[in-house]
Amino acid sequence: MQYKEYGKTGKRVSCIGFGAMRFDTSKSLAENAELVRYACSMGINYFDTAPGYCADQSEPIFGEAFKSMPGEFHVSTKAMPTSFDTARKAKDQVRRSLDRLGVSKIHFYHIWCLRKMEHYELAMRPGGQYEGLLELQAEGLIDHIVCSSHMPGAEIKRIVEDGKVEGVLLGLNILNFPYRWDGVKAAHGAGCGVVAMNPLGGGAIPPGHEKELAFLAADGETPTEAAIRFLAACPEVTVTLVGFTTPRQVDAACRVAEGARPFNEADLDRIRRRVSENMNAACTGCGYCLDCPQNLPIPSYMQYYNEKQVFGRSDAEMIRQLDFQHNWGLLAGRKAGAAECIECGQCEEACTQRLPIIERLKEIAAWENGRG
Ligand code: SF4
Ligand code: SF4
Questions:
Q1: Which domains does the chain have, with CATH numbers?
Q2: Whose CA is nearest to atom 7 of ligand 1?
Q3: How far away, in angstroms, is 290 Cα from ligand 1 center?
Q4: pLDDT per residue over 103-162, tens digit each?
């Protein structure tokens, strides 16, 4: 396992982190806890969870594992400023997580799921979440206050330059990096830790797409391995969170991380070119269409639609993906459903890719209906 410095915190963390949102909830607490301890025995020392993950069982599974997990490890959990908008509520929530995790402190506490600057401002307002977290930090219950964000690079830059958080968790992978790189560079440049989530694109880089995604991989490597190697070896990325369900997945990620060789500039150029070819008529996440009178999160919807555009997913697969996207992914906490588009045309006018957004939203609305 390779270890990296997490920003300026003085903590050394494994380049692969345990993302605790993929437990098999048909298994017992004890069986899942065994998987966590196995990952620790393989050198993973960064464990990331959140209230609500895995039918709200993720924090208790970690708690069960930590009862008998040897050695030093780092725990991360989260709370959204939209739900915990006062210092008191924020502190109560941290205490609840401490209790469920059975630990005396949380090493990395995330102001969770910042999708726009208003969320950050809400967390930072006087008497808000950040103030509560600072109080707990002074009491020694939190080591480092960090955040997770789905915002464009320029806004991440504003947050890290504000100097209040010590790290950022971002959705980053080998397919979307050309559009996320500004945020990564800004965070790394400001001395923050950078944690990548969704290294497999929330299912966009699954095993079984070897042919379409062969351009990502070096000789003898699968696209999935390449996707993990890309992040694990990236100097600007501190931890790559991989969602584990089985010990085999832990082994595979650790094996890739062990000898991970960074992609060179020629590799990256090749991938950038192929991604933009493959992603012709796909959303780049530029964010020029954000001003929707119906508050629709258009870039998030269009990036989700990329999976049909780029990989030709079936309707059934797209419906299956919706659950993940609505609960934890691009569409978490959205204000309006796709069916609420009034076809004003403003977004299509603004779209840098000239995408047929209105038609795509109709398809998505049908999938959302299909999901019930
Ligand atoms: S066409 Fe629909 S999605 Fe686009 S800006 Fe108007 S209401 Fe929003
Ligand atoms: S303007 Fe077009 S390409 Fe840019 S985020 Fe919106 S839909 Fe995607």
A1: 3-268 (3.20.20.100), 298-371 (no CATH)
A2: 341
A3: 9
A4: 999 999 999 988 778 999 999 999 999 999 999 999 999 999 999 987 777 888 999 999
Residue having the nearest C-alpha atom to atom 6 of ligand 2: 289
**Tens digits of residue pLDDT in 255-292:** 999 888 888 888 888 877 777 666 557 776 667 788 89
* Distance between start and end Cα atoms, the chain: 43
Q: Whose CA is nearest to atom 8 of ligand 1?
A: 292
Please, are residues 136 and 104 in contact by the beta-carbon 8 Å criterion? Answer: no
Is 86 touching ligand 1 by the criterion CB < 6 Å? no
- Nearest CA to 198 out of 154, 254, 237 is that of 237
Crossing angle of helices 29-41 and 247-258, in 10° steps, is 20
> How far is Cα 78 from Cα 194, in angstroms, rounded to an integer?
16
Centre of ligand 2 to C-alpha 178, Å, is 14
346 Cβ closer than 6 Å to some ligand 1 atom: yes
Pairing mode, if any, of strands 3-5 and 12-14?
antiparallel
pTM: 0.79
Identity of residue 191: G
The percent helix, strand, coil of the chain (3-state, each to 5) is 45, 15, 40
Cβ(101) – ligand 2 distance below 6 Å: no
- 3-class secondary-structure state, position 80: coil
Residue indicated by tokens 């799921």? 113
| Contact call for residues 87 and 79 (beta carbons, < 8 A) | no
C-alpha separations of 127 from 97, 98, 116, 233, 325 in Å? 21, 22, 20, 40, 31
Residue 95 near residue 79 (C-beta atoms within 8 A): no
